[in-house]
Write a structure and sequence with these properties.
With 235 residues, the protein is mainly α. The protein has one domain. 80% of the residues lie in helices and 0% in strands. 23% of the residues are buried.
Length: 235
């Protein structure tokens, strides 16, 4: 593969990205019942871009700010999230994505059996939807984490009220964009299954609620266990 092939692949990826942002470009991937190689290539490109973004230099003075002022609460949780995402290997992320696709498809099958709809495609169609949405959201999430980290450092390390307000507004904007990414996830899944967007809204929301209900007790137990180990007196 020469440089022209690489640039051609990147150009097709950018075109795909722009089409998805405009809710277009997935009609040809509906009900394929095979894992599509083109979507897989876009998924890999998205992972590579996210990896490169995650390895970029942090905001100037960020480390000094962390040393002077240790974040707490949501801020500390955000810091840990950034560290975990940046330390996740590409192979691990691929496995997590496939596992998510499998559990989501299984839930949709159960939902369809219980309520008679939606009329699902195959597990391969769910995987294609996962590949498509991660191809666009993985780089976005990497950028969002970097922007959030920068905004967090600005809020904690800058004493100018105007800049602190700007950083707060930027953090709020990132939260809104993440909500928008949920909409794209539903749309891509509906497109690869040949369904209307509205047909997957309730099943996807219910899947999210069920996942939170099941995982929340585990997260609370892990947090309590970590707190006990942290405050355990040395012997």
């Amino acid at each position: 593969m020469d440089f022209k092939d690489i640039f051609d692949s990147l150009a097709r990826y950018v075109g795909f990205y722009v089409d998805i942002l405009r809710f277009r470009g997935l009609d040809s991937y509906a009900r394929l019942e095979v894992v599509d190689s083109t979507l897989f290539s876009y998924f890999v490109i998205g992972l590579f871009l996210a990896y490169m973004i995650a390895r970029t230099k942090t905001a100037e003075g960020y480390a000094a700010i962390l040393e002077d002022e240790e974040p707490t609460g949501i801020g500390r949780s955000a810091e840990k999230l950034v560290e975990k995402v940046e330390s996740t290997s590409l192979s691990t992320f691929v496995l997590i994505s496939l596992a998510w696709a499998a559990t989501f498809h299984l839930y949709l099958l159960l939902y369809s059996r219980l309520f008679g709809r939606p009329a699902l495609g195959s597990i391969e169609d769910t995987i294609n939807g996962t590949l498509a949405v991660n191809a666009i959201l993985t780089p976005f999430n990497a950028v969002s984490l970097r922007v959030s980290r920068w905004a967090n450092s600005m809020k904690r390390g800058n004493r100018l009220p105007s800049l602190r307000k700007f950083a707060g507004a930027l953090s709020f904007l990132m939260a809104l964009l993440h909500f928008g990414s949920f909409v794209y996830m539903i749309w891509t899944m509906a497109s690869t299954h040949g369904l209307r967007f509205a047909e997957l809204v309730v099943p996807t929301l219910s899947y999210t609620v069920v996942g939170i209900v099941l995982l929340l007790p585990v997260a609370i137990m892990m947090t309590k266990d970590r707190a006990l180990r942290t405050h355990r007196p040395a012997t």
